[in-house]
Amino acid sequence: MKRLVSTLKNIWHIEDLRTRILNTLLFLLIYRIGSYIVLPGVDPSQLKQSTQEGILGLLNMFAGGSFSRASVFALGVMPYISASIVIQLLTIAVPYFQKLQKEGESGRRQINKITRILTIFITAAQAIGYLKSIVPENAIMVNHALFNISSMIILTSGTMFVMWLGEKITDNGIGNGISIIIMVGIIARLPLSVTQELVTRVNGAGGIITFIIETVVLLGIVMFAVLLVQGTRKIPVEYAKRIVGNKQYGGVRQYIPLKVNAAGVMPIIFAQAIMFIPSTIGQFFPDAANNSFLASFHDIASVTYNLTFAILIILFTFLYTAISVNPTQMADDMKRNGGFVPGVKPGRPTAEFIDQILTRITFPGSIFLALVAIMPAFAMMAGVNSQFAHFFGGTSLLITVGVILDTLQQIESHLLMRHYDGLMKTGRIQGRTPVSSAV
């Protein structure tokens, strides 16, 4: 306890870090206040309660509850993530985007500009479906045509404002603004979910002992998620000795840390965006939504939904790992700096060796990632409340764990840079691929 107080004092003494933390809290407060501002012309008491269940409940959790409240931030950052996924796929297939990606900072700025423009169109399209399916006619207190036009503009503006808040957190806060906004929306639903589950158990459905067992299981899953995020496979690298003047360079052994889950949370986000397509079709074509196959994708506990979800996660894990980790470039960089893997020839054999190890650790990593993703379905089968079950795995758990680890790592780097002790007594906090930078 004494060490914790000392660490908090050290954090407060660093003016730059203190300012960044306060800025982050201020921006998050603005976001949370905006999530309670209802669209003009809507009667909140008449809103549908169906948004608390199934796939809509998952969307509502990502938006921090603003989805079910018909808030001006109802769509959150999901349209931006969808646009980013589209651009990511275009960088693989379209030469123009491949060229932009190789142009450095200027190319990144152009890609970001295109992503924002695409976000506006995606948000406008989703706003139409949202107003049609979530906001009933008896909840609209003004002219319907005027309401639809104004609400579409407001929802689009709200999403762009949330994106701006995320960029401000990245620039003036503690970083990873989009990730932190998603995490705050998820955590905001935790107290209510825990309270509902506790009340349900105390009132006779299993008793307090069952709730304690569920809490212990949840802590175990969180620990497993931390291991999955931080797990690495170290490849030893030797550097040849060089004598420059009276100094010796190289001659030391270093390691290339290959993460078991190099793709981070992005495969789940990609797969989740694909799984939202059937519900989007149902918003525009109600008759098609009654189809038994499409209807199964609205139930996150169904076998069809979870099997498809798991397969997509495994495929996207390999795809995103192939995009983010380039063994050929790593081998060329090592060769250029006089480094080599013991027992492996420099150049192409080293690239093949790294690629082989990467494939071996990515496959079990993708399986474990898929298991964590579908864990909420098993929790609901065991009788856990659907709202509380979302925290037993899935995107919400991995995003929360990953963002917290990365934020702690950034705070620790500020402390170590100014010669303070880190957050941990032994070892160092390892981060992970942040959602914002990956997107």
From TrEMBL:
UniProt GO cellular component terms: plasma membrane
UniProt record similarity statement: Belongs to the SecY/SEC61-alpha family.
Name of this chain's protein: Protein translocase subunit SecY
GO biological process: intracellular protein transmembrane transport; protein targeting; protein transport by the Sec complex
Membrane topology: Multi-pass membrane protein
Residues annotated as signal peptide: none
Record gene name: secY
Role: The central subunit of the protein translocation channel SecYEG. Consists of two halves formed by TMs 1-5 and 6-10. These two domains form a lateral gate at the front which open onto the bilayer between TMs 2 and 7, and are clamped together by SecE at the back. The channel is closed by both a pore ring composed of hydrophobic SecY resides and a short helix (helix 2A) on the extracellular side of the membrane which forms a plug. The plug probably moves laterally to allow the channel to open. The ring and the pore may move independently.
InterPro entries: SecY, SecY/SEC61-alpha, SecY_CS, SecY_dom_sf
Organism (species): Solitalea koreensis
Subcellular location: Cell membrane; Membrane
Top-rank lineage group of the source organism: Bacteria
Pfam families the UniProt entry points to: SecY
Transmembrane segment boundaries: 21-39, 77-97, 117-135, 147-166, 173-192, 204-229, 263-285, 305-326, 361-382, 388-408
Keyword Thylakoid among UniProt keywords: no
Keywords assigned by UniProt, alphabetized: Cell membrane, Membrane, Protein transport, Translocation, Transmembrane, Transmembrane helix, Transport
Subunit organization: Component of the Sec protein translocase complex. Heterotrimer consisting of SecY, SecE and SecG subunits. The heterotrimers can form oligomers, although 1 heterotrimer is thought to be able to translocate proteins. Interacts with the ribosome. Interacts with SecDF, and other proteins may be involved. Interacts with SecA.
